[in-house]
Every structure is written in structure tokens, then in C-alpha cells.
Amino acid sequence: MKQIKDLVSWFHGKEKVLVALSGGVDSALVAYAAQMALGKQAVAVTADYKTLSQEELDSAKKVCQEIGIRHIIIEYSELDNPNFVRNDKNRCFHCRTELAEHLVALSKKEKINLIVDGTNLDDLIEYRPGIIALKKNGVQSPLVESGFTKSDVRYVAKENNISIHDKPSNSCLASRIPWGSTVTAEKLERIEKSEVIIKHLFGVRQVRVRDFGNRASIEVDKNELVFLDDEEKMLILEKYMNELGFENILIDPNGYRPGKLNVITD
Length: 266
Known about the structure:
Layout: H1 2-10, E1 17-20, H2 25-38, E2 42-48, H3 54-67, E3 70-75, H4 82-86, H5 91-109, E4 115-116, H6 129-136, H7 142-145, H8 150-159, H9 185-202, E5 207-212, E6 215-220, H10 231-243, E7 248-251
Parallel strand pairs: 1-2, 1-4, 2-3, 6-7
Antiparallel strand pairs: 5-6
Helix pairs in contact: 1-2, 2-3, 2-8, 5-6, 9-10
């Protein structure tokens, strides 16, 4: 298949590569191609920066085992970064700047000169200051340079038996908190717990719990909204989320779409 050959060939002539792997399908496909091209000279790295959900971390570990690529997990806390915690419209820029610093430090330790990520062409359409931060620090994007859209990624990943080819897109837990509202460990914890129980109770795959203080807005894929009509399960959910500090719980009738919370709170 031409597309996977093009992606694999992108790595030809490279000595070593460090793949920033988040747990999603985009970076998984990049890691797969890097492993095919370079074997043991390809290394995947996942940053556990305390705003990454456990689900994403587990996904990263699983896919690296499947691919057979060496996997390094680095740990630090974004909550120690006041620029990130402030949560202005440049939050993602601060996040990815700090990530890039850790990636560069690891690459030097591993004697690797090339760092890549899973950015695809569709990502360039949206407001993504984090991409700018990574590029400023020398991180390259093989999917962009090889002409991959998101649908291309999913199709090629499926053709090559990558188990998470249809995994819903995700983002760090801080993306559920509106710009201008401080990011705290307590907010991140209750968001993650809420999303886990919603998936467990209703069987939905895509979910975001937006944190507006004492109010939570639940977004699921439009096709999955019908699953939330179960009144008995909703009572269980409301009781659980009330205990977490959410007094009012709303279901967004418009469903989930990326970037919906890119606003400044009053």
C-alpha cells in the first residue's frame, strides 16, 4: 500500500528517532512506521504530565507492546508550571513548550537527533498553539510531510492491524476547563472520574465533561446521545457527580465537537 510505504520511507536515511507517543492513533501510526524502518533505533516516549488520563497512558503502553517498539515514560507535573495553571488561551503553547524541553533532554540522553510527533494535516486547520511550540523546538511531523489526513491515518492504521485505529480522539484533561479558570489537581481528578463512570454506565466511547465550577456539561458523540436517555442510570450518575462537587449536570444536546471550550470565562 502506497501510503504506508511513503510514511515508512520518510524514516529511511535517518539513524535514530524519538517518537512522541500520546496514546492516540496518529502517533501510534508514526511509531509503527518508525519501527518498520529503523527497528531498534526507533524509540517511543510518552509524557505522564498529570493531565494525561490513565486511559491514554494505558493505551500508549498497549500500542507500544503491539508494535514492539521500545517505550519510555517520562514523568513530570504540568501543575508545577504557573503559565500552564493560569490557563489562558496559550495554555497549550506552554504545555507543549515544556513537553518539548523534556523531549529534547531525553533525546540528548539517548543520543537521538530526530524527534517526531503525530500531527496530521487536519490538525493544522484548527487553533493549535501547541503545534507551534513543538515546531519551534525542532519536532517534525512525518504525517504532515507525507500528506496524511485524519481519515488517512485511521484507514492505514486499520489496514496494518493497529488495534486503536478507531479509537476516538482525546486530549489532555485540562482541555475540559474553560480558559481563564485555573487548572487544579482537584478539577482534573473529578473530570477524569466523571468521564470514566459515564463510559462505564452508558457504554459511550466519546465523552467530555466540561468543568464550569459547580456546573458540569456532558458532551458525547451525537450518535451516542440516545444512550444517555436511561433515567435510572442518569440518577446514579447525578448522585456520583454531585458527590464530586458538581451541583448541576447538563447534557449538551449538540454533542461533542473539538475545540468547543476555546473561550475565556468571565
